[in-house]
Amino acid sequence: MRYSQYFLPTLKETPGDAEVVSHQLMARAGMIRKVAAGVYDYLPYGLRAIRKVENIVREEMNRAGAIELLMPAVNPADLWQQSGRWQEYGKELLRFKDSKETDFCIGPTHEEVVTEIVRGTVNSYRQLPLNLYQIQTKFRDEIRPRFGLMRGREFIMKDAYSFDVDDAGADVSYKKMYDAYRRIFERCGLKFRAVEADSGAIGGSFSHEFMVLAETGEDAIVSCNCCDYAANVEKAELRAPNGEAPAPAMELGKVATPNLKSIEDVAAFLNENPQKMVKTLMLQNEREENVAVLLRGDHKLNEVKLCNFLDCNHLQMADEALVRKLTGAPSGFSGPIGLTCRVLADQELAIMSDFGLGANEENFHLTGANHGRDFQVEAFVDLREAMAGDPCPRCEGQLESWRGIEVGHVFKLGTKYSDKMHATVLDDQGKERILIMGCYGIGIGRTAAAAIEQNHDENGIIWPMPLAPFQVIVTLLNPNDETVMGAGEALYDQLVAEGLEVLLDDRDERPGSKFKDAELLGIPLRVTVGARGLKEQSFELQDRQTGEKSMLPVDGAAATIATQVRAALFASLGG
Ligand code: ATP
Ligand code: MG
Questions:
Q1: Residues with CB under 6 A from ligand 1
Q2: pLDDT tens-digit profile of 110-124?
Q3: 3-state SS, residue 149
Q4: Which residue's alpha carbon is nearest to atom 30 within ligand 1?
């Protein structure tokens, strides 16, 4: 591709709404352009990177035995009513009516459509296992679209769905996808971890998320420093603490804490460690059930665990009016004593005694409180978020914490959809069986963005070879010099003949600005062609990642470069 004839609108300025580096660089490198909030054009250079990710995904899905098809973006409401999700799915589902006033939605995921296909075409266990996948545009009306392709509203996803006649078969299908995902992200050159994830209220199912490690990641994950345990904090279990609470040694006392509402402020005022305090959170779920949750002062509530315990989907903090109604005091002074709503305690409280907490009275806290003596709790449950330093739930190690970008998700669904939609087959005994399903997603654009989060410097992107839109850029220092142009074109032709993807920078621009663009674009290898070098029959080769430069004899230059590119691609295939 000749740069002068390509469409590569790079930007000097970073768009004001680009908060994370991948979004900034994708916009500046002319990869994407915003059309509406969370809706982007994929410009030619960006599309090349997207296609690279897609191709790796496609190859590995095919290798794992999955079969590609393409389902429509537009889904009839009828199918979504059959699964019950027309009602359950919140605002993220974009619904609309056609000219005949029939309800439709744009698919945010395709369990319904694929289950309908299999229901209508597969009737014997002999046709299983089956894994169908597509690479397709999704729409989710995200509340906060941001970070460019990382959290768009319209985005490209690879979604696969497996169907098995029994649980054991479904586990094999799941494992195949898990392994394929590992290969995919290794081939993309990413540093990632597969972590245990929450699988919501569907009993007996399990799920893993593939997390690219990055500071800007929206997810918090923990992993053990000894064994291979790793989990999303939403899911990370914690062991019940050892031992029991020491016998109460203090009387219950009341202290004035004027205007001190946060646990840190109260602890500091009482000259206590927040670990000796208990905080009381007042929450309400979608069934309008109220619950008070007690946590050690320095701990954070894990809402997913609480939802799972209460068997509900949503929780919100009680508003000021509700807090007053339930506790008789403004927020900031809540405590469990005298409450009539449900009171749950995190399991850590089971070993605490003589602690401080809110008095349910404005500007007052209590000291020397003890459960059992001063108030009762319904249950001690694992309700808090894991944090660095916590003991590993599997071994004697300690947890470390990370931030991650969820690029893929594998999920054993069980019969959630097949049951509601009556997708069954006859087994080898001629008995009707409900299909066991799995679903497996990869965000294509998010994966490309995550690769940039992990691979960049102050000058621009540093593409891992397997994802690079072009593998080599040939920069002509002076394209008006015929010898330079001639040598550059000859090299370009040879590289293309070697099967490489090459950008020939033949623009009539200052060398400095061409070098700047090359760095911004992040093409792994740059060959500079100039009159001075040519006098000595050589080009200059620069590695974008290491910055190392070397002289490259004109003779055999293309073969040397091709060998380097192939070696990098081969290395990405792993051992
Ligand atoms: P998140 O928690 O980040 O919203 P999710 O759990 O909703 O993700 P899934 O429904 O499992 O995501 O979708 C599969 C994959 O699709 C995700 O792992 C992610 O890579 C990608 N994805 C999901 N939502 C978006 C989005 N809004 N923009 C870009 N990619 C997305
Ligand atoms: Mg989501």
A1: 109, 140, 142, 151-152, 155, 157, 406-409, 441-443, 445-446
A2: 999 999 999 999 999
A3: helix
A4: 443
